Every structure is written in structure tokens, then in C-alpha cells.
Amino acid sequence: MAASQFADSGADLTLVGIQKRFPGFTAIEDLNLEIPAGSFFALLGPSGCGKTTTLRLVAGLEEPTAGRILIGGKDVTSTKPHQRPVNTVFQSYALFPHMTILENVAFGLRRRKVSDPVNRAHEALRLVELDHLAARKPQQLSGGQQQRVALARAIVNRPALLLLDEPLGALDLKLRRQMQLELKTIQEEVGLTFLHVTHDQEEAMTMADTVAVMNKGQIEQMGAPEALYELPHTAFVANFLGQSNLFTGEVVESTSAVVAVDVAGIRVAVPVARAQRHAGAVTVGVRPEKLAIHRDAPPADSGTNVLGPGRVIDVSFSGVSTQYLVAIPGAGTIVVFSQNREFGPISHVGDDVWISWNVEHSFGLADVPDEVQRFAGDTDTKSIAAQRREALIAELED
Amino acid sequence: MAFAAFSSTSVVAEPAPRKKSRIALFLLLPGILYLVLFFLTPLVSLVLTSLQAPREFGDIGQYDYAFNWQNYVQVVDAYWPHILRSFGYALAATVFALAFSYPLAYFIGVKARRWPLLQSLMLVLVIAPFFISFLLRTLAWKQLLSDESFVITSLKALSLMAPDAHFTGTPAAVIFGLTYNFIPFMTLPLFTTLERLDTRYLEAGSDLYASPFQVFRKVTIPLSMPGIVAGTLLTFIPAAGDYVNASRDFLGGADTQMIGNVIEANFLVLQNYPAAAALSIILMAVILVIVGVYVKRSGTEELL
Ligand SMILES: Nc1ncnc2c1ncn2[C@@H]1O[C@H](COP(=O)(O)OP(=O)(O)OP(=O)(O)O)[C@@H](O)[C@H]1O
Ligand SMILES: [Mg+2]
């Protein structure tokens, strides 16, 4: 009986047209998602974009305003949380304060009458290296230890679908790497489906098969980590996942091979296949590590984009690479990462330099970056105070 | 003493910061004085009275200090049915009050969180009966449930009650009265714990395959134990010593007399002060033992 209590393999998860409205606030707007069984899916996004809400909807702790949720092909939209083959590692841990660590971990096993819950719980605790604290109560543990207990409490059930809400956020780097490995091993061994929410883009990229970037309750783009990094579709993804240099200009040339825009009088080209839009104002981007710095103007070449001359305004050394900030009139400030193949920087502050990159490395975005701040809507006390002061100054001037 | 159950930490005298402990002592002084004057003195007097012997050739109600421990044997021998009845009624009233108050407190403290106005309104309604003397309220119930009352005549007309049956004067009436009078004492402590109940634990429970009933039994109840212990103590202790509801003037009858009624009669009517004192001490001792065992068994020391 015991073995059949555990999922033999992961289940796939399908979200169809999910919408979630709280009174006066739409947290999720038309979310469609397909996670194949046995895959490691990472959900990445800024704070407040609806990641936790998505997990709560899947776990059944929140009811969608519209849309359907399917787990393993079965529509579970109207089933109760305890009937779903899903476990959650909560962002707030939510360890039962009146139970010992061991009883916390054994809770799910006991509810399903799995044989030998105590030994299985000990085993799960050994996995997160906390078996020696099994008799303690949650309040007697540090934050990171509590987080590992939360992880053990969910994983011990071997659910077909495991939801992880920033499960490693409170751990130090070494422990985090170790837990990442453990998680990946468990996931691959049993072929479970993991839906992993994280702030840490490196974690998302190294662990996940598929990464989805979420923004304002919608998925902006999803795909393999490499594809997402090398070919972002929107300005948000380009800047949220790693850094990007973006140039916006009108399209001046559109052939079957390349689309070129005019950036401060200079032609910047992007391959047609890598451009989301081919007419009007188009934003072209390139990753900082793809750029090369030149002391002299490089020869013009149709396979290379060249910007310059500009002035180096900042050089910061970071071991493996050096980051240069180059101000180019009309094109803004450009970030360049350069590998430290030589001793010392290749340019210094105040130098006049040119920048070039392979046209193939450009990407064309579907939207134009908005200048507005991401959290402009926030009404924290500071910004309210600032607004008040401005209003007062304006009044006094009248 | 029973209130020791509510204190979260025992006072530990720290020897190191001298000045601090002196200030603490100074602040404790009024309380200590009050306890010595109004608790310890009467207690000593009560113990001494309970051991008194009747004055030789004296009048009724004249006693001398002695070590007449036979008083205890006599009162237990004479009144053991009343003692048993008291604790039986108190237990029944506590159980009924808990069964009534828990859902009420849960609704006010958890479900009504989204509507603060409704929450306050319901709390006011729970407390509202306190604005009227409980003697008056109990008398009102006597009227409402008397043989000629609408309730009883209707029940009889519907053949739900035998034509010659009564409600007032029966054990059921006394338990009803006790339950009614102590419901606020049960509801308020339950409310204060349930109000702070973190519903994320309940969500975690249901996420870990616990059905709503299992979540209630395994998570909600243990987490609300402090309120349950406080509420049951605040109901059980005064209910066991109550002498109003069971009195013949209110809801009781000849065979529903509780220990409180016996103590009252011995003090005020029979003028058998030693018997009354001995009964009081027995009542106190039994309650202490019951409460001690209960608090220990419910294992709430660390939750309190
Ligand atoms: N019960 C609720 N009522 C109203 N608004 C809510 C509720 N729960 C969440 N929200 C709002 O929905 C949005 C998404 O919240 P959510 O918790 O999903 O964010 P998140 O992406 O998990 O953020 P973080 O990374 O900070 O955990 C937030 O703006 C939040 O304020
Ligand atoms: Mg969250």
C-alpha cells in the first residue's frame, strides 16, 4: 500500500485562461501555462507580480475568478486542496508551532496513512541535514533551518507536483547550492514535476528546464534558460534576466536578412529572425558581454555593428571581468563586460572608445522600454512626502 | 491560584540587577498587600472556623476554636451527593458552553475578519448581557420557562413534553442556567486566541492532505488550546460553586441543590459555621486538584 501512496512520476500542469481578482485588484490576468510532467519549471519575476498567487491557485488555496486548472489531465479547478496531488513549500514556511519538527514532517504521511511515517520523516530530515533537531519545536530553529524543514515536510510526500515558493531564500550560498543539487536529484530520480518560484535568476537558470518570466500577473516570456537569455522578446525580460543595452530607433532598412534602425545617425542592425518587429520604432538590444571595446575606429563591416566614439565614464574591476560604462552621444550609457585576459583594464576613464558587436548577437524587441519606473505607483511615505513638498513649492511660487 | 494557568512565564527573581528587582518588588507591593489582606486572612480564618467545635451548653451558632477535624467527615458524609452533583452540573455546563461558544468564537474571530464592523458588533452582543444583573436575567429565564410560559405550554400542546412535566426545578434547568450565565466567560477567551489564529497553518494542513475535519482536530484545536483552557476554567470554577441557578428561588428545585446552596444554608440559615467552612475548603481543594490535573494534561504550558 505504501509505495502506491507516492507518485510514481510527475503530473503535468495546465493552466487555461486563469484570472484572479482580489477586491479592487487584479493579481493575475489571463494566465496560460503548460508544464510537462517531470520537468523543472521556474517562475521568475519581481516582487508582487503574482507568483505566490499562481502557486496558491494551483494548490487550491485560492479560487480563480476565471479559467481552469488541470493536473495530470484532470480538471481540479473545483477540488479542495487536500484532494490535490500537490504539496507546497510555503514562502512563510507555515510550520505547525505545536508539533515537533518530526511530527511536522510526518504530518502529510500520517494523513495518507503511509506506512512507517516516522522513519520516512527521519529520512527526509537527514536529506536536509536536520535529523539531529527532530525533537525540537519550530520556534527553536533558525530561519534557514525552518526553511529546510518546510522543504522536507513537502518533499517527504513525493507529490506528483511540488510547488516551491522561494524555498531557498533564507539559506547561505553554500547551503543553497547544496539544496539545489538535492532538489534536482530528487526531481530527476522520481521524475516529479517541480514548479519553483524564485527571485534568484541564477538559480532559475541553472536548475530549470523551462524558465518563465512573469510581470504584472502575466507571463512575458518562457522557454529554455539559454533561449530566454540570448533572445529576450520584451524590454522587461531583457532587463530582468541579466543586463542589456537597448537602443531605440526608426527602421531605416528592412531586407530579408536584416532589419536596421537608426540610432543617433548610426545604423544598428539585427537579423530578421531575431527581431520581433520589422517596422516603425524598434528597440534593438545586445548583452554587455557581447561587446568589444576599441581604442580606434574599427573598419566598417556589414556583419558588425559599431557605435562611437564615446567616452569611458566608469571602470569597475570584478575579478573575472571588468565593467566599463561608455557614454555615447545619442545612444546613452552603454555597459560593457570585458574578460580580463590581460593584466589591468584595456581602457581608462576619459578615454575615447568605439564599441562593436556581431550583428548576429543583436536582438529586436517587441516593445519599447518605458521610461517610467517600475514602482512608480507605489505610495510609500517617502514619495508622498516628496510629492507634498513639490506641491508646496509650486504653491509658494504662484 | 487558578490564574497561574494564564501566566505565560513564572516570575524568576534575577539576582544580578539589584536595583531592577527592588523596583519590581516595590511595584508588586500593592498586589501582595491586597492578597495578604483579602485572600490570606480570610483563608486562615476559614480553615480555623472549619475546625471549630460547638460550645458546650452554648446556643445555636456558638462555636469555640478547636481541632475538630471530624467536621470534614461529617459534611462529606452528609453532603457527598451535593458535592458530586455540583461537579457534575459544572462539568455539563462547561461542555455545553464550550460546544456553543467555540463555533461562535470561531465565526467572530476567524470568519468575520473580513468584516471588522460585524466582528465588533457580534462581540458587543456577546458582552451585552453583562449590562443587566445576572440575578435579573436568571429570574427572567425562570419566568420564560415556568409551567405557564408560552414555551412550555407550546411544547406540551405539541406533545413534545408530558402534560404533567416541569422544566424549572429540574437538573436540566439548572444546567441550562449555568450554561447560559457562563457563555460570555467561555466565548471571550476563545475569541482572543482564535482572533490571533494564523490561517496559514490551516492552509498548510489542507495542503498536506488533511480534510477540513482533520485540520480542525489536528491544527485548529491544538492552536486554540490556550483559549479552551482559559474558557473552561473561567466557566467550571465559578459554576461549581454557584448557588444562584440551583437555588429554589431561581431555576433549581429540592433535589438540584449544589454545594453552594448547602454552604449558603449552613452559613445563613442553620448557623453551622464550621460545616459551611469545611465545605468551602473541600470545594476549593477539589477544584485545585481538578484544575491542576487539567492544566497539566492539556499540555498548554508552552502555548500559554
Ligand atoms: N488577499 C489579497 N488581497 C488583495 N491583494 C492581494 C492578496 N494577495 C495578494 N494580493 C496582491 O496580489 C499581487 C501578487 O501577490 P503575490 O503574493 O502573488 O506576489 P509575489 O509575486 O509572490 O511577490 P513576492 O515575490 O514578493 O513574494 C500583489 O500585488 C499583492 O498585493
Ligand atoms: Mg511570493
Brief overview:
Chain A is α+β, with helices and mostly antiparallel strands.
Notes on the protein architecture:
The complex is a heterodimer of chains A (398) and B (304). Chain A has two domains: 3-226, P-loop containing nucleotide triphosphate hydrolases (Rossmann fold), CATH 3.40.50.300; 238-397, Nucleic acid-binding proteins (OB fold (Dihydrolipoamide Acetyltransferase, E2P), Beta Barrel). Chain A is built from ten helices and 20 strands. Chain A has helices at 2-5, 51-59, 101-111, 117-127, 143-155, 173-190, 201-207, 225-230, 235-240, 381-397, and strands at residues 13-22, 25-35, 40-44, 66-71, 74-75, 86-89, 161-165, 193-198, 210-215, 218-223, 245-254, 258-263, 266-271, 281-286, 292-294, 304-317, 321-328, 332-339, 352-358, 363-364. In chain A, strands 6-7-8-3-9-10 form a six-stranded mixed beta sheet, sandwiched between helices. In chain A, strands 13-12-11-14-20 form a five-stranded antiparallel beta sheet, with no helix packed on it. In chain A, strands 15-19-16-17-18 form a five-stranded antiparallel beta sheet, with no helix packed on it. In chain A, a hairpin with a 3-residue loop joins β17 (321-328) and β18 (332-339). In chain A, α3 crosses α4 (117-127), α3 (101-111) runs parallel beside α5 and α4 (117-127) crosses α5 (143-155). In chain A, 40% of the residues are buried. Chain B is mainly alpha-helical and 304 residues long. Chain B has one domain (79-303): MetI-like (MetI-like fold), CATH 1.10.3720. Chain B is 67% helix and 1% strand. Chain B has eleven helices and two strands. The longest helix of chain B is centred in the first third of the chain and has 40 residues, at 70-109. At the A-B interface, β6 and α3 of A face α7 and α8 of B. Chain A: GO terms for molecular function: ABC-type polyamine transporter activity; ATP binding; ATP hydrolysis activity.
